[in-house]
Structures are given as structure tokens and as C-alpha cells.
């Protein structure tokens, strides 16, 4: 039996002719993609993704606008994805959705397959955030802590990080990147010169440093910065602590006591 040709609208805006049978398969796949997204959205609560608690909801799970905010996509585009109307979302969008929805590595791979995209090559970059690492950061409530991927993008942080370093979500996505901020001269609270660091040509494993944080309310905080690696991936956990009995330790205690701190997480 033969099949006719049909037009398929691509993400770039152009139309391509594909066999009608292929269109039927793609439609079924993206219908399943949308249903899966909705299912994963329905199983989460605002508190689980670092959003403030809300009034009782008529339906379980996160609202679409909350997922869109966490993933850094438009609400209209997320609606199109859930309704199976958006064709072939990019790997960047899929990765952001996987993080926003707290997917496991197996679930993330399934999401890529449903979208018709190659599963990320785990032999090169391992940047899926394990639940255990997320809990570690959230439970380090006495210290500013954050998780960065191999590209130096923040992907999770706790409330003390927001109190001391500022909320990454208040910045455009590119300006959240640690290396981009340092080496392009964007305002940072860490008192150091990226240009001098580059000119020094020092090479080595960067896992510990003494830093001075210029806090807008407390002034200068003298903190130890430790960078921890995680098992079987390329994530880095950055933790700031103050030596016991110091003025900086007292100031951190004041910050923690004065703030109503809730865990926070990126897309």
C-alpha cells in the first residue's frame, strides 16, 4: 500500500514534504510527548521546586506558567508543546524542561526520544542534577551553596546563596554564567579581578579559595570557598563558609536569622 505526501511545518518556519505515514507517526509521538509533560508537571508541588507555597489549587501539580518560568521558555511555547503542536524542540529546551521537572536521567532520555532528538552523549558531559545533590544543597541551610554545571551555569542553589550572592533568576540567562560575569566585567559581589587572574596564567585544580564578598547591606564578608565534585558527572558544588568566631560568621548568622529562607532552584 502506498502513502501520499503531506506538508510538515518545521520549527524554522518552513514546510517540507514528508510521507503521510511519517506525519501520522510524528503526530502520535508529539501527542505522547505532550501527555508525558503534563503527567510530570502534575506530580510536582511548588515547594519541591523552590517556589513559595500557594493557596490550595483545584488541580494537582505545577501551573504551566510556573514550569515555563523555571525552564526559561514562554508560556505560549509550553502550551504548544503540551498540545503536540510544536515540532522538534531543541536539545537546550529539552534539557531546561528536564531540570525544571526534576527528571531522572532515565526520564530525561525518554523525553529526548519522544521529541525525536538524540539522547545526550553521557560519555562527554554529565550534567543531570541528581536528587541527592539537590538535597545536599538544600540541607546546607547554614551556608551559601550552589551547584554549577560544566559550563559554569548555576542549576541549583539554596536560600542562603540568594541572601549572600543574589538570586540568579533576577539576571538574564547568559549573565547567570559565572565565567561570563567574571571575564566580561559584569557586576559581581566577589571582590577579585578576572583580568589579573587571566594574566597570571596560573594552571591547576580550582577547588578552594579565600574570597571577599561585597554584600550590599552587610559590607565585606571574608569567606572560605570550597568546590566539591560529584560522583559520575561534571557538576561542581560551591559552598561558602566563615571561620567560627569571626565577624563574618556572626554576619552570616544574622542573615540566616533575619530572613525567611526557602530553598531555590534554577531551570
Q: What report would you give on this structure?
A:
By secondary structure, this protein is α+β, with helices and mostly antiparallel strands. It folds into 2 domains: 5-114, lambda repressor-like DNA-binding domains (434 Repressor (Amino-terminal Domain)), CATH 1.10.260; 131-258, Beta-Lactamase, CATH 3.30.450. The chain is built from 10 helices and 7 strands. A hairpin with a 5-residue loop joins strand 1 and strand 2. The termini are far apart. 24% of the residues are buried.
Using the 3D structure, state the CATH architecture of the largest domain: 2-Layer Sandwich
Which word captures the global form? elongated
Main β-sheet, in a few words?
Answer: 5 strands, antiparallel
Distance between the termini: 46 Å
β-strand number: 7
**Helix and strand pattern:** EEHHHHHHEEHHHEEEH
Q: What is the fold-level CATH name, i.e. the topology of the largest domain?
A: Beta-Lactamase
- State mean pLDDT (0 to 100 scale): 79
Q: Tally the helices.
A: 10
| Overall CATH class of the largest domain | Alpha Beta
- Total discrete domains: 2
Q: What structural category do the secondary elements indicate? A: alpha+beta
Residue fraction in strands: 15-25%
Percentage of helical residues? 25-40%
Radius of gyration from CA coordinates? 22 Å
Strand order of the largest sheet: 4-3-7-6-5
Uncertain segments are 1-28
Amino acid at each position: 500500500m502506498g502513502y501520499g505526501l503531506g506538508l510538515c511545518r518545521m520549527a524554522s518556519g518552513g514546510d517540507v514534504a514528508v510521507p503521510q505515514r511519517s506525519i501520522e507517526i510524528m503526530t502520535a509521538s508529539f501527542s505522547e510527548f505532550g501527555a508525558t509533560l503534563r503527567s510530570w508537571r502534575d506530580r510536582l508541588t511548588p515547594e519541591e521546586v523552590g517556589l513559595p507555597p500557594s493557596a490550595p489549587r483545584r488541580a494537582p501539580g505545577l501551573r504551566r506558567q510556573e514550569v515555563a518560568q523555571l525552564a526559561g521558555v514562554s508560556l505560549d511555547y509550553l502550551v504548544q508543546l503540551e498540545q503536540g503542536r510544536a515540532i522538534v524542540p531543541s536539545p537546550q529546551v529539552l534539557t531546561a524542561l528536564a531540570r525544571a521537572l526534576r527528571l531522572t536521567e532515565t526520564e530525561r532520555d525518554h523525553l529526548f526520544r519522544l521529541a525525536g532528538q538524540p539522547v545526550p552523549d553521557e560519555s562527554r558531559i554529565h550534567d543531570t542534577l541528581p536528587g541527592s545533590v539537590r538535597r545536599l544543597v538544600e540541607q546546607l541551610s547554614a551556608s551559601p551553596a550552589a551547584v554549577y554545571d560544566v559550563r559554569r551555569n548555576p542549576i541549583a542553589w539554596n536560600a542562603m546563596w540568594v541572601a549572600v550572592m543574589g538570586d540568579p533568576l533576577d539576571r538574564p540567562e547568559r549573565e547567570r554564567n559565572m565565567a561570563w560575569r567574571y571575564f566580561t566585567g559584569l557586576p559581581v559581589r566577589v571582590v577579585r579581578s578576572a583580568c589579573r587572574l587571566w594574566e597570571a596564567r596560573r594552571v591547576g585544580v580550582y577547588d578552594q579559595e579565600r574570597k571577599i564578598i561585597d554584600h550590599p547591606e552587610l559590607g565585606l564578608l571574608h569567606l572560605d570557598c570550597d568546590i566539591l565534585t560529584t560522583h559520575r558527572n561534571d557538576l561542581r558544588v560551591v559552598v561558602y563558609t566563615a571561620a567560627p568566631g569571626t565577624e563574618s560568621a556572626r554576619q552570616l548568622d544574622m542573615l540566616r536569622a533575619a530572613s525567611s529562607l526557602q530553598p531555590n532552584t534554577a531551570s
